[in-house]
Structure formats: C-alpha cells, structure tokens
Amino acid sequence: MVDEALTRRLRTIVGDRYYRDDRESLVAHSYDGTPMLQHLPDGVIYPETAAQVSEIMKALSEYRVPVVSRGSGSNLCGGTVPVHGGIVMVMHRMNKLVEVDMENLTATVQPGMITAEFIEHIESLGLFYPPDPSSMKISTIGGNIAECSGGLRGLKYGTTKDYVIGLEAVLANGEIIRTGGKLMKDVAGYDLTKLLVGSEGTLAIITEATLKLIPPPAVKKTMLAMYKDLYGAARTVSRIIEAKIIPATLEFMDNPTIRVVDDFANLGLPRNMEAILLIEQDGDPETVERDMARIQEICEQESADRIEVAETREHADKLLTARRSAFTALARIRPTTILEDATVPRSRIADMVLRINEIARKYDVSIATFGHAGDGNLHPTATTDARDAEEVHRVELAFEEIFEAAIELGGTITGEHGVGLVKAPYLEWKVGHAGIDVMKGIKGAFDPLNLLNPGKMFAKETRKRVVIERG
C-alpha cells in the first residue's frame, strides 16, 4: 500500500483527476499484451510534463516506492506488468508533436504519441519515419523506444534505435538528463541515447525524443512468392541478400499460418504451400524495377510454385494484409495466444522452422511460425488455453527448447519483443554470467534503489539449459 502522505503529495503534483487508486483503474493497469500475467499496482498516475515526472520520481524515491512507466501496454514480454506493485506511470497525456525541423530533418515528440498518428503526420509533410511495429495503431513512441521496436521494414531501414538521436529522460532520483540532439555526429562520452533505447523502462523514464527523418521512397513494388519446399523459400532469402539486394520488406509465413490467415482474411492464399514470402522493394523507379526483376528470377530459380506481383497499391495492400493479419488470425483459434520471437542468422531460417515444428510435435502443442525472414527474426506462435494448466506447461517447455535451438543455431532469445519478465530467466543463456554482471552494474548506476520497473530484465534465478535430444 502507498503511504497516505505520499498519495497526497502525488495528487498535489498532477491534480486529483490524474492520480487513481480505485479498483477499476488498478485492474486496468495490472496487465499488458502478454497473456497470463497480472499484478495489481497500488496507484496509477498520469503526468503531463517532464517537470511533473521529475517531482513524482523525487517523491517515489523518498518513499522507496517502485514505478512502472507505461504507454499502451501492447508489449509481449510482460514489460509493463507491475510485479512489485507500486505506481504505474501512464504517459498518454504527454502526447504532443513538439516540432518538425525541416532544415535538420528531425522531429521532437513526447512519449505518449501514438506511433501510427506520428507516422501519418510525418508522411503528410513529405517525409518518412520507417519503424513500423505491428502494434503501431495503438503503441506509443515512448513504448517503441523502451522496447526498441522493429517491424516489417526493419531489414532495409533498421529499427527504432536507428532513428532516435536525442532523448530527455528523468532518472530515478528525479534528475532530468538530455542526451544527443539534432546531430549526425556526437562522440562526447558514452552513448547514453542508445543505452536508453531498449532499456525497457529500467534505467530512466523517457519524456521527449528527437527522431531522425528521411526522404520517402519514390515508388514501391510488392510481390508474393509461394513455395512447396520450405528450404527453397529459405534459400531465396539468402540469395536475395547475396545478390546485394536489400528489400524494404522480406517476410515469411509457414503453412499453419497460411491456412489460418486465409480463413481469417479470405485472401485466396494457396493452402498447400509450405511457405510464403512477402517481398517489397522501394526507392527510385529504375532501381525498384531492376531489383524486383532479379528477385523474381531468384524465386523462380529456387522453384517458387507461384509468384504474384501487385499491379496497384490496393493490390499491394491486400498482399501486405496477408502478413499483417497473422497474429490477429491466430488469436481467433483458441482462448490464449502466446506470440514469441527468436532470431537466427537468415541462412538458418529453414533449420529453425523445422526445429520449431519438431519441438511442437514433441510436446503435442500447436505452433505456427511467421516473421521477418530478411533479418532472421521469427515469431513462433502457440495457440492454447490458459485454463488448461497441463497444456500451458507443455507450451512453456516447448518455448524453452525453441530459445535453446535459436542460440544453438547462432541466434538469440529475442529479436524485438524485449526481455521484460518473460525472457528474464533466459537472458544469461545469451549474454553469459559476465554480461549479466555488467548489465546489473549499469542498472545500479542509474537506479541504485531499484525503483524503475523492478523485476524485469534480471531474473532471480536463470533457467537451466535445455538438453535437446535429436535422432
């Protein structure tokens, strides 16, 4: 419980309307997009300015009360579940686009702005902000920064970290720091900007970001390549990159995903295919035509059974719908959907998909796989029922082996969803004991009282490595 004196102080900072401790508000902020995780906070607060965030943190630091900063709560790693209670700080009131600087091609934005709204406004000005997480219609810029969100355009354009060039943030003790700025070069000390991006709210609370913008591509062209041979699809991915072509989008769906998506969106997808690649290239017209012709040639050489090239933007959007609706379609099958992510070198995609399928059969669970083939980031997605404890346990064991398989193939336990609560027991598998010690040292320097999103990133105990037996 939060001390009454602290409650009064918090209400004074933001006003009675913007501090809530009623049951409905607490329940509404006790979970996020991660299934089967829920913990009640003691209060919910809605600041409007960085100065208010600073005063809130000074008060919470004095009373030793933990805080979880939160946007829309769309993350999938338990990153905003308040596992230690305390205060949930919701950033939605801080939703202003402060400035678009046409001379420096930057935008300054508060963390609570919805990503899709930001992108739409930037594009209306004839500029381009590439990061496009699947949750962008509800996720916030601050949440994207906290998780270092990726998206379909990540292969060619990079992820959120590649566009954040400056930050304003509030430390656990209430001090305000500013990092970077409207600069293309800055090596003055440690790169605190990049350190805060992807830190999942464990180091500071972001209150403003300066983002790099770029000119938009002149044209786009979209293709769907369909394969009866999984390895043919995987070889296509590697050969496209080997040909020194970097598509704007290079996405993958396996057969179980194809079937579910077709049931959901009624797109007429061929249900007998083992894999589909969604490929999009953008840029100047001549380059796009040349690249897409070469990509089509590679698809044919790798025995693509069918190739469909969009003739109009509407047709292209229909093809993109096939990939973007994958999670929504899978979520309709059963009451609980667990969407995970693991990344392997792109040359090992087929091996990883086959390993996922082996593991799913071993534990008798249903797992479909889709994801960003171009950068090796796959999303094995289990459909299950949280009320069936025995089946959920089998799903958890299956994912443990999937994470182990990813590392064995030269990959990692998460490519874009983050560590949060869900992946914390496996982090040492990837970074090692020494890596964990370094990270804990950084955490201690920023947040010595462990008030910022405690319980995330670092598990009390690392899970034992899985022993995978294969014939």
Descriptive keywords:
eight-stranded antiparallel β-sheet, 471 residues, 4 domains, Uridine Diphospho-n-acetylenolpyruvylglucosamine Reductase, domain 3, alpha+beta, globular, Alpha-Beta Plaits, 17 strands, Uridine Diphospho-n-acetylenolpyruvylglucosamine Reductase, domain 2, five-stranded antiparallel β-sheet
Structural class by helix and strand composition: alpha+beta
CATH topology of the largest domain: Uridine Diphospho-n-acetylenolpyruvylglucosamine Reductase, domain 3
Gyration radius, in Å: 23 Å
Task: Quote the beta fraction.
Answer: 15-25%
| Approximate shape | globular
CATH architecture of the largest domain: 2-Layer Sandwich
Separation, N- and C-terminal Cα atoms: 54 Å
Number of strands: 17
Largest sheet: 8 strands, antiparallel
The CATH class assignment of the largest domain is Alpha Beta
Number of distinct helices = 15
Average pLDDT rating: 95
**How many separate domains make up the residues?**
4
Low-confidence stretches: none
What proportion of the residues is helical, as a percent range? Answer: 25-40%
